[in-house]
UniProtKB/TrEMBL annotation:
Family recorded in the similarity comment: Belongs to the PhoU family.
Protein name (Swiss-Prot/TrEMBL): Phosphate-specific transport system accessory protein PhoU
NCBIfam families per the UniProt record, alphabetical: phoU_full
Annotated transmembrane regions: none
Assembly mode: Homodimer.
InterPro entries: PhoU, PhoU-like_sf, PhoU_dom
Residue ranges occupied by any PhoU domain in the UniProt entry: 24-111, 130-212
A Pfam entry, by short name: PhoU
Cited SUPFAM superfamilies: PhoU-like
Amino acid sequence: MPNEQSEHISRSYEEQLKKLREMVARMGGLAERQVADAAYALIRRDTELAGEVIGRDGEIDQLERDIENFCVRLLALRQPVASDLRFVIAAMKVSNAIERIGDYARNCAKRAVVISQQPQIGGFQGFQYMSQLVQQNLKEAIDSLVNQDATAAERVWAADANVDEVYNGIFRELLTHMMEDARNITAATHLLFVAKNYERIGDHATNIAETVFYAVRGGALPEERPKGDTSPFAVVRPPV
């Protein structure tokens, strides 16, 4: 009988950890969709889709609360140790990062509504590419947590410099448009905020990767995070 009871408790505990993985994966999937739809709304000037993105943010917020409550209960009742403890704590930290990503996607959608009412300046290829990069990093970061894959987490961590490189290009292009014609300032300013939001989404995906690496390996990544954001030092001179 004691063995049967112990086996039942162990099986129940594993099912709870599996449920936690599923909750985080679902939350991550919702955030990925928000990031993608916000970019599509911007590029297609689709205010209806932008409104949907804004309205869906509450679902992500609720999932964060559900995951936090689930983790607190798991910690209190199961008292996990070692790798299980690190995983539960990581799930809470990751859910917080995903919630922030959802906020940034919502902000992008709000800007997309304003931008749709402004004259279009330049193309949106950089925004589309940047959105694809951060979606890919976010998906791989969430998968690395669900699969307990430290190698995948390290790949995401290293890929953040690519997002920064695209951001730098967008930043310089928009500054140039503003210098060339003052009528571009309103639209370009909103686009700069959108680009910065996507850059921050990329940063949060990297934060998730660092958290996952620690949860799996029990130690931090050995090197300083690769960053390539040079926008604070950019200088654009007016055309002669």
